[in-house]
Specification:
CATH architecture: Alpha Horseshoe
Structural class: mainly alpha
Strand content: under 5%
CATH class: Mainly Alpha
Distance between the termini: 27 Å
Length: about 80
């Protein structure tokens, strides 16, 4: 996402919030949204979306990434 890559986290968050609202069951969107929220310091919301990403597809590629990011947020 260009907005994220250029550091425009507010725009990236807004875009991902809409995307997640349209497709709540997409683990990639949940992971991306959780990652953006974590960068913004919204850790509670970030954890919720990262957990959802892992739960939606526990054996998929985003589950491992989500679990790793959740672990990193503990520190």
């Amino acid at each position: 996402m260009a907005q994220y890559a250029t550091g425009d986290l507010d725009a990236a968050e807004s875009t991902m919030r809409r995307a997640v609202g349209q497709n709540e069951r997409d683990p990639a969107l949940q992971y991306a949204y959780g990652s953006i929220l974590a960068k913004q310091g919204q850790l509670g919301k970030a954890r919720a979306h990262l957990r959802r990403a892992a739960k939606l597809d526990p054996d998929g590629p985003y589950a491992d990434r989500a679990r790793a990011r959740l672990e990193a947020l503990k520190n």
